[in-house]
Design brief:
Strand content: 15-25%
Number of strands: 13
Helix content: 40-55%
CATH topology of the largest domain: Rossmann fold
Largest sheet: 7 strands, parallel
């Protein structure tokens, strides 16, 4: 198939999934065109068989990689529409698959108006803020509700998010659920099964307010009242300064480490003992899945799609949002019970392996084929 994938350029989970999907589909013999505003954070220059198209040639890395605005200037939207139309004219596309509704649903709707009919058929995968933030904004909700009804198929990443999307946008049916995924050959345990002498908690995010990075610090401070531990942060964003100000002067500041933005995070996660996710909103929780694939149990807020990813008392613990005392108690239990930790280490890896990239890409292929009315069998 000839597939166009349109995604954000930044370091977020939606762009990571889009790029990995593009790479895997290209490896399976499909012709892939990847469209983005800037060169994507998750491509390191080795594009393989993927043909990349960007509006701006300068790299979208450094501080600008932390969060790409959903509000593109009209000129940028028109430029990316023009690029996609040129590919359709010169080579043809069977599918245009957008990851993230804003602004891409509006871009896809603009393409459909210009083409009137025929291919490419339009597919959208709804990620976190699409529904939980933009969908709750009345003016954006009206735009998105109308635009999404123009698509030939919709998917999203968790059952929770599918139900929420149907309700908020008034969709005739829930989107198809195709969970996020990991490459289990990249995210895997590095031979460590026991707790470290000084256990390491790790938090991975884009430091947006919905990730509640200050909450991670508050939980850590409660844990430190009972046992020695250290806290690592991977990522960067708007709340990093808040976190740094919070920990300034604390006696345990030396036990915090900021790794900043990284593409290859698997070796760092595999060295940690527990993943900490106090998020206020999560459509899925890709960082949790990455941790479990490395054999790292997760202590996370019971929000959104996280309960579908983290199995309470099997691959980690769930706590009510904002219950930092409850989270610290769960962590203390996990960090002081070696048998429990080893059991959760093994269960985490086994559960995460059910979300392998090959299985999920096959589901995308099947959705493409069904949308196109094809009876192909993919393996």
């Amino acid at each position: 198939m000839r597939i166009g994938i349109l995604c954000r350029s930044d370091c977020g989970g939606s762009s990571h999934i889009a790029v990995e999907t593009a790479k895997e589909l290209a490896g399976r013999g499909h012709r892939i065109h990847l469209f983005s505003l800037h060169p994507t954070f998750w491509l390191d220059g080795n594009c393989g068989e993927i043909v990349t198209h960007t509006v701006h040639q300068e790299s979208h890395r450094g501080s600008s990689a932390m969060a790409e605005s959903a509000d593109w200037p009209q000129e940028d939207r028109e430029n990316i529409i023009r690029q996609i139309l040129n590919v359709i004219r010169d080579e043809g596309l069977d599918i245009l698959h957008v990851h993230y509704a804003l602004p891409f649903a509006l871009v896809a709707a603009g393409i459909k108006r210009r083409l009137q009919n025929g291919r490419p058929l339009l597919i959208a995968t709804l990620h976190g803020s699409d529904v939980s933030v933009h969908g709750l904004d009345p003016s954006r909700n009206r735009l998105l509700s109308a635009a999404l009804k123009e698509f030939d198929a919709l998917s999203t990443v968790s059952r929770n998010h599918a139900g929420l999307a149907k309700s908020i946008f008034g969709l005739p049916a829930e989107p198809v659920v195709i969970p996020n995924f990991i490459n289990t050959a990249v995210f895997h345990p590095h031979g460590k099964i026991d707790l470290s002498p000084k256990p390491t908690l790790i938090h991975v995010s884009n430091f947006r307010s919905v990730k509640d990075c200050p909450g991670a610090v508050r939980i850590f401070s409660l844990v430190r009242e009972k046992t020695a531990a250290q806290l690592w942060f991977i990522g960067d964003g708007e709340e990093r300064k808040t976190v740094e100000d919070m920990v300034s002067g604390e006696h345990w500041t030396k036990d915090l480490r900021f790794f900043g933005l990284r593409r290859n995070i698997a070796p760092i996660i595999a060295q940690a003992d527990v993943m900490l996710m106090p998020s206020r909103v999560e459509s899925f929780g890709l960082a949790a899945l990455e941790a479990m694939a490395c054999g790292v149990p997760v202590v996370a807020a019971r929000v959104g799609g996280l309960p579908e990813v983290v199995l309470h008392e099997k691959t980690g613990f769930l706590f009510e949002p904002g219950d930092y005392a409850g989270a610290s108690k769960a962590l203390f239990r996990l960090l002081t019970d070696g048998d429990l930790y080893r059991t959760m280490h093994r269960a985490s890896r086994a559960h995460a392996c059910q979300y392998g990239i090959e299985k999920m890409i096959l589901q995308y292929e099947m959705m493409y084929g069904k949308t196109l009315g094809q009876e192909e069998t993919f393996e």
